[in-house]
Amino acid sequence: MAEEKKFEHIKIDWPTTKEGGTIDGNYAVIFLNRPDKLNALQVQTVQEVYEALEMMEIDNDIRCVVLRGTKEYTKKPAFSSGADLSAPMPPQLKMNVPIHMTHAMYMRHKYYDLIEEFAKPLIGAVDGYAFGGGCELALCCDIIIASKRSQFGFPEIVRGIFPANGGTQRMIRHIGLNRAMKMLYFGERETAETMYEWGFVTYLVDDDKFEEFVHEKAKWLGNAATTALMVIKRAAKFGTQVPLKIGLQFEQLGFGVNSASSDVKEGINAFLRRKEPKFKGY
């Protein structure tokens, strides 16, 4: 059973269809659960996030996942404050050997990439800090819902390093070169409102309405047509990284794949009957 797997750096809340689940909706929540460290990330943390998503990808009761920081914070609210710089390096890796450090970053990239490739909708629910590796983890999500008190940034430059968990690549694709370079060069904190204006944050929500709004959007996606959502995600996120003609091939093939879904028949029949569709998914 998926629920029996033990994690150290994350917690999971399941839909009520699962034993012990409390969520009213076809979605699960992954909490980064290192409150004393402001949810700072180690390789183990992102590996556990991926392993949880891997379980959920083949679980038909889960159609959407929310990734967020723990609600039970001890210092300040945080999605993640970034990499845990106090974490020891694996003993076989040496800081002053370039090939060792390249391998260390390869391990992080592997899990960030796998998180981004998760087939179902992935909502990044950001309440508080999203700095460095935490901001880069949010970049792997499909939708960003942020409370107004949230802040984003890449502070690595003030420590003589740079955001190498995809930050120099993914952020430019989201907000453009000039704005991304400002964040990368100066390490300044940007407000959630600014990131909303720049197009990175999808929904900007009052702090006291954050929990309700995240639930509303996750539940909507959890009730939507699952195959269509999968095709949309693949075509939009990855079909746009290749020439247009190849991206359009993504669309054509995806249209064919989606046409075999029972949700297509349900959606069309519901429209003709002037009723709300009830998608069963898969």
Tell me what you see in this structure.
The chain has 282 residues and is an alpha/beta fold. It folds into 2 domains: 221 residues, 2-enoyl-CoA Hydratase, Chain A, domain 1 (Alpha-Beta Complex), CATH 3.90.226; 48 residues, Lyase 2-enoyl-coa Hydratase, Chain  A, domain 2. Helix content is 43%, strand content 14%. It has a 6-stranded mixed β-sheet, with helices on both faces. It has a 4-stranded mixed β-sheet with strand order 4-6-8-9. The model has no long low-confidence stretch (mean pLDDT 93).
Largest sheet: 6 strands, mixed
Our measurement of the CA-to-CA distance between the termini, rounded to an integer number of angstroms, reads 20 Å
The largest beta-sheet arranges its strands as 1-2-3-5-7-10
- Which second-level CATH architecture of the largest domain applies? Alpha-Beta Complex
Please compute the radius of gyration using only Cα atoms.
19 Å
Gross morphology is globular
Going by helix content, strand content and strand pairing, the class is alpha/beta
The figure for the number of domains is 2
Low-confidence stretches: none
- Which fold name corresponds to the CATH topology of the largest domain? 2-enoyl-CoA Hydratase, Chain A, domain 1
Mean of residue pLDDT values: 93
* CATH first level of the largest domain: Alpha Beta
Listing every helix as H and every strand as E from the N terminus to the C terminus, the arrangement reads EEHEEHEEHEEHHEHEHHHH
CATH superfamily of the largest domain: 2-enoyl-CoA Hydratase, Chain A, domain 1
Helical coverage, percent range: 40-55%
Number of DSSP helical runs: 10
Percent of residues in beta strands: 5-15%
Structure summary, number of beta strands = 10
